[in-house]
Amino acid sequence: MPLDACDLSQLISLCRAQIERHCEHLGRLDSAIGDGDHGANMKRGLEAVYRERADIASLPLPAALERIGLVLVMTIGGAAGPLYGTLLMELGRGLADEGGRADFAASLARAIAAVARRGRSGPGDKTLLDVLYPVQAEIARHAAPDRIAACARTAAQATEMMLARRGRASYLGARSVGHEDPGASSCALLAMTICQYFQEHTPS
């Protein structure tokens, strides 16, 4: 499904609303293994993107993704800003204006690799990568949006029993086990929101 300006504007609004709705929950997750500000940081970042949605939506998709990434880097703060920013800026750079779904999956894989390099982390380290990797795999398999959404939620939940190896949570050692990673949770929420939009707007 190609995205037009209306689609992109609506997606920005929906993602902002989803993060605002779960802001306190994300904060509680982060309080258990971090400094407790992930929800507030994500809310601030998505609100900044929302304020620029008209200008962003007027851009071609690759440029729009790069712009969103830059806004998130400048406004989220902490570790999440550079990671989400890297993901979207690299994805935008990798996409051709008229790329198909196979191109998107390949560009997403390269963007995720850039996030891994930026965070010096990988699968199983209890980060948002533990959602991004399986979601990309489902996209590459041409899975339906509802399947991708379910994959994202399951992947985030699976971080609960992982030992954190990166970030502030890693200082807790074994005590990080038993808590869902807040970055993985926010990533899943955003992925689920996007998938639901595609599910509802893709012609049958």
Automatic annotation (TrEMBL):
Q: Which GO terms describe its molecular function?
A: transferase activity
Name of one Pfam family that matches: Dak2
Taxonomic superkingdom? Bacteria
- Broad enzyme group: transferase
Task: Please report the stretch or stretches of sequence annotated as the DhaL domain.
Answer: 6-196
Listed SUPFAM superfamilies = DhaL-like
Where does this protein have coiled-coil stretches? none
Q: What is its EC number?
A: 2.7.1.-
**UniProt xrefs under InterPro entries:** DhaK_L_YcgS, DhaL_dom, DhaL_dom_sf, Dihydroxyacetone_Kinase
Q: Kindly state which keywords UniProt assigns to this record, in alphabetical order.
A: Kinase, Transferase
Report whether Transferase shows up as a keyword of the record. yes
Enumerate the NCBIfam families for this protein: dha_L_ycgS
The name on file for this protein is Dihydroxyacetone kinase-like protein
The major lineage groups are: Bacteria, Pseudomonadati, Pseudomonadota, Alphaproteobacteria, Hyphomicrobiales
